[in-house]
């Protein structure tokens, strides 16, 4: 069983796979790694159960698995599972959700 399938974020945390940066221009020119910009888009891979309030109620997260989200430039915790890099963030750090 893979690490990714066993990983479950806790509380209000969300596991995100960053969408890869473009490696070539619209005209077909390959970009060197130093010229590639880091993308701020990602796909939600796993979500926690939600944030627990002081009276014990659980507030559900506004995102779900499969959502495409916009991430802040900085923040989150880098996490490597099955030799693949992911970003673990709190739901409040997510800038927005791209609607389908």
Summarize the structure.
The chain has 100 residues and is mainly beta.
Topology (SSEs and partners):
Elements: H1 3-6, E1 13-18, E2 41-47, E3 51-52, E4 58-59, E5 68-70, E6 77-81, E7 84-90, E8 96-98
Antiparallel strand pairs: 1-2, 1-7, 2-5, 3-4, 5-8, 6-7
Order of the strands making up the biggest sheet? 6-7-1-2-5-8
- N-to-C order of helices and strands: HEEEEEEEE
Q: Gap between N and C termini, in Å?
A: 31 Å
CATH superfamily: GroES chaperonin
Radius of gyration: 16 Å
Can you tell me the residue ranges where pLDDT is under 50 for at least 5 consecutive residues?
A: none
Number of helices: 1
Can you give the mean pLDDT?
A: 84
Strand-residue proportion:
35-45%
Number of E-state strands: 8
Give a quick set of tags describing it:
10 Kd Chaperonin, Protein Cpn10, Chain O; single chain; 6-stranded antiparallel sheet; 100 residues; mainly beta; elongated
Descriptive notes:
With 100 residues, the chain is mostly beta strands. 4% of the residues lie in helices and 35% in strands. It contains 1 helix and 8 strands. It has one helix at residues 3-6; strands spanning 13-18, 41-47, 51-52, 58-59, 68-70, 77-81, 84-90, 96-98. A hairpin with a 2-residue loop joins strand 6 (77-81) and strand 7 (84-90). The protein is elongated, with a radius of gyration of 16 Å. The two termini are 31 Å apart. 18% of the residues are buried.
């Amino acid at each position: 069983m893979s690490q990714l399938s066993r990983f479950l974020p806790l509380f209000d945390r969300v596991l995100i796979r960053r969408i890869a940066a473009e490696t070539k221009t619209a005209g077909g020119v390959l970009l060197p790694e130093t010229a590639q910009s880091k993308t701020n888009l990602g796909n939600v891979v796993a979500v926690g159960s939600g944030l627990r309030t002081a009276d014990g109620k659980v507030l559900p997260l506004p995102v779900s698995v499969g959502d495409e989200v916009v991430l802040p430039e900085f923040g989150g915790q880098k996490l490597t599972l099955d030799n693949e890099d992911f970003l673990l963030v709190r739901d409040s750090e997510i800038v927005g959700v791209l609607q389908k």
